[in-house]
Structures are given as structure tokens and as C-alpha cells.
Amino acid sequence: MKKETKIGTYRKNQKGFGFVKLEDQEEEIYIAKEHSLNALNGDTVSIEIISPKEGDKKEEGKIVKIIRHEKDTVVGTFQKNRNFGFVVPDDKNFGTDIFISKSNWGKARNNHKVLVKILKYPERGKNAEGEIIEVLGGVNEAGVDMLSLIKQYELPYKFPEEVVQEAKNFGNKINSEDIKNRKDLRQDVIFTIDGEDAKDLDDAIHVEKLENGNYKLDVHIADVSHYVREKTELDKEAYLRGTSIYMLGRVIPMLPRELSNGICSLNAGEDRYTLSCSMEITPKAKIVNSDIYKAVIRVTERMTYTDVQKILDKSDDEVLKRYEKYIKNFELMAELATILKEKRRENGYLNLDIPESKIILDQDGFAIDVKKYETYFSNEIIEQFMLVANETVAEKFYWLQAPFIYRNHEAPDLDKVKELNKTLFNFGYKIKISKEDIIYPNEFAKILEDVKGKDEEKVVSNIILRTLRVAKYEAENKGHFGIASKYYCHFTSPIRRYPDLFIHRIISKYLENDYNVNEFFVKKYSKRAEKRAENCSERERTATKVEREAEDIKKAEYMENKIGEEYEGIISSVTNFGIFVELENTVEGLVRYETLGDEYFIYNEERREAIGEQTHKVYKIGDKVKIRVVDANKLLRRIDFEIVE
């Protein structure tokens, strides 16, 4: 009898074994090295199950056929010998160095970063063979590291000429023809609040207090769908990209800057078209009225988070003087944001306060400093307003049964929560699971609240984050666990996210037809919503990976100049091969067990700690340690520490 086969994506580990992810299954299937059939990282493969899941042991399979190789090009470093060479791939899990014969290395020199076309895939213990098709530059040349990432992930970093032309055709002034079909709010006091260096401003706000004591919040979002119409070259390119990618000092935008920084950007003093959401909110954070409509606005002032914070703190006389007539507006915003935040806290919103890294580059793009990214309450004002607008829009269109893309975040996997509890036990915390095996966001929220301000705050936040599922785009609403919300979508960033642009089109269609849309439209767009959601989730995963790798490269580059220096850190993770320590500036490095003196350390998986065999010295998550930087390598994206007693 023929064995049943399943199809999935292979994820290879540097050590030779790997895992296969099946579409319809949360748990991955383990593939031992001898059962991997020379498959490479990312390949689509057909597998047979050879042993079932038992207790903690994963289900095991063997690859019986490679259906499709994910890549036919690879980025790596060229190592040259006299008559042949090898390319060592940047993707350490790729699985094989690539042999290059002399006739196929072109103008590449030793230690050049190159792009290789694979001519022969590895088989029976032989390396892959390839031909160098592009030389990206020397390993330490300015900008080559980021260019390598772009090539490795095949990112579309240049816009085709016809796409740019389409964007330029709109000019930088609105076509006033359409004003009569919109609410004219150009007399309202409206602000954008963003970071200092933001160029694409897609959201603006207006807040006022009503006579009945309620608040009126208007969230105005750039009406990108007015310009980027379906089936145009602009739309096809935006869909292909799915999202903007931020790679430290360079952005790969979803839309050409003629649009994103021009006619679609809500620049102060310019007339701009928006898709807007108005909400009447009580002092108890209840939304009693809401309206979604097309508008024309003129932003009064372009504000930055730092200036708004200085106004709220009354800490800078010059800033207070400059914005004197708007102080009351900002105080009102802070008042409303506090009310919304408090309500969210009651609902069990997970306030994962994990500091982002701010990496400072010099003019050539080399990392010269790494620190925590400072956020203020002014950042939260915008966050709270965007969250409530996203929820309001999602709920309205859910009840209309409209074809839509939701931003879903499902409750975490039960087994993972049980695993998490083993680690939390060390800190004296526990997530309670209900009799019906239901996990409520409040349980996580309580721990995050308790841990605030303590040494272990960051570590606990990080392990909780690792336990949660990844949020994704779907055509069916499943709610958002992380923000404790029943209905959620992404409505507020159509300049940099395709799902927002897609739902703007749906909303516009409903508005134009006074909410009477035909069955044909609903059917057609429901299918599209499914397909678009899947593509956007996929593009987002790639963007997250690229942004993370860009950060790892730059952190390692920065630490290359810090070898021998000593720092205080906190143990962020304990594994069977070593201990990860995170420094105050967000840099993380690995302490290998073999560097911990002559003693043998036993890894206790149950409690996630390392115990010295003779001295019984224990290293566990959350411990403070002093380390010395031993090595840093931006090519390998690796930083090594040793513990200084």
C-alpha cells in the first residue's frame, strides 16, 4: 500500500536537520539530516510521516521528493582559490556552499559579496554549483550589506518607469472637481503627529469636547485609493510589494515617493483628500456614535512626538510659545487618550513595552551607536486614536457582512502557554487557564502590569511575546487577542500597507452606493479579500525578516569596534548551546558554555536554566551578569560574549 504523502515548506537548520511546515497544521514536522534528501532552506517538499508525536517528541517525517526549490539565486561571500572558488551563502541555513568554476566567476574578487545563479542543486553529498551573475561590492564597502539583503530576498527596490510616470501624472495639487462630493473640513484645527524624519504622513487628527461632555475624535486618513485605482500599474506594483520595508537609513516604499511624500501625504497647509472616521466617545470610553466619510482637509500644523511631549510636560518655553494657541488642543488629546488607554487596560490589552532599537548610522551608512528608541506619551496618543479608529471601521463592516480584510491575532496555543508557565515559575508568576481551556488576555496583562519597572520586565515581556501567535491578515474576522478586541482591521496606513488600501476601496464602494451594494460585488471581492490577505501576510513576514536581519547586521557591525569592552547585561534566554545576554542598549550576544571555565554546565530544559556540575552555579533568565565582548561578526550576524566574574 502506498504511504500517504504531505506537502509543506522545509526550514533547514545549520546542523543539517530541519522542520517541515504544513499549511493546515500548527506544529512542524521534524526531519533528521539523513531524511532530508539534500533539500535546501525554503524548498517545497513532499514528505512521509515515519513516527507519530509522542509527549514532547515532535512528529517525524522524511522528505521523499523536492517539488520546487525556493531559490535559483543566492547572495554570499566569494572565497577564491587558484582555479575554482566557493560562495558561502549569507543564509546560514541554506545548507551548502556553492562551487564556482573559474569560467563562472566573472569579475568577482576574493571576499566580494556576490549574487550567484544556481546551475546544479546539491545531490549525493556534492555541493551545489553556480555562476556569479552580479558583483555587489567588497564585504566592508559602504551600503553593500543592505544591498545584499535586498538581493537575497529579491526585493523590488526600483520602481518601473511606467509606475513612476503614473504617480507623477497626479501632480502635487488636488483636483478640485471632487470637493463637492466630500465634507469640507479645511477650517478645522487638524494636526499630524509623527517622528522628526517621517515623510509620508498618512494620518491626521482633530479632537473637540462636545457640550454634552463627550469627546469628538476625527481620524483623517490619506485617501490613497482615490489615486491608486485597481488594475493600474501603480496598484499592481503596490500589491507586489505589499508593504513598505524600513531598512535603517533606507526605505523600500510600497508607493513611489511622488505619491507617498506628495499628493497622498497630509502635509501642513496643503489641501488633501481623506477617508475619515469620526467618533463620539463618552468619558467612560464608550463609542455612542460614529461616521465614515470622504473629506477634504488642510492640516493646521505638522507636529512631532517630542514637541507634543514638551507641550504636555510644560518643559520647553520656546516650544510652548511657538504653539501657544494650540496647547488646549493637545491637553484635550492627552485627556481622551488616557481615557481610551484605561478602558483598554480593563479589557486586558497587552501592553508589551519592549523597547525598539535606535541604530545611529554615519553618512556612509556605518553603525556608530545603538540605543533604546525613546517613546513618549505623545506616541501613545496617536496609537490609542488609531486603534479606536481601526476597531470602529472593522466592527461596522463586519456587521455589514462586507468583503473585508481583518487583522487577526488568535489566542496562544495551550501547550505553549504551559511551557511559558514553566519559565514564569522562576519569577513567581503564572498564567491561569480556565476549566474550559480558555486563555484570557487579562491573564497576560496582569503579569505585564506586575512586572513593570522591575529588573526582569524586559525579559518577561520578551518571553510572553514569543509565546503569542503572529498576527495576520484574513478575510474572516477572528478578533485580536493582543489588544483584547473583538473586531480589528488596518485602516490607518494606506500609504505603506496594502490591506489598508484594499479596505479603503471597499469602504469607498459602500459610501458611493449609499451602502447598497449588489451580491455580485460582495462575491467577487470576498474572493479577492482572501487572496489579497494571504499575499499581504506573506509580504509582511518577509518585511519583518528583512528588518530584523538589517538590525542584526548593524548591531554586529557596531559591536565589532567594542571587542574587549565590558558591560552589565541581563540573561534573556538559556538554551542547550549557551546563554543569551541582552545589554541595556538592546544588543544581544551569546555566551557559549565552553567559555564558562573548566566546569561542565547542565541545561535544565524544564526550568530553562544552566547548572554547574561541581559548583552548582545557576544561570537563569532574568539574572544580571557582567560580560566582556569576545567577538562580533557582521557577516555571520553574530555577537559573542564571555561572563566576567
How many helix segments? 13
Structural class: alpha+beta
How much is the radius of gyration in Å?
A: 27 Å
Kindly state the number of beta strands. Answer: 31
What percentage of residues falls in helices of 4 or more residues?
25-40%
Largest sheet: 5 strands, mixed, barrel
Task: Supply the number of structural domains.
Answer: 5
What distance separates the N and C termini?
Answer: 62 Å
Percent strand equals 25-35%
Which descriptor suits the 3D outline? globular
The whole-number mean of residue pLDDT values reads 92
- Main β-sheet, spatial strand arrangement: 1-2-3-5-4
Unreliable runs, pLDDT <50, ≥5 residues?
Answer: none
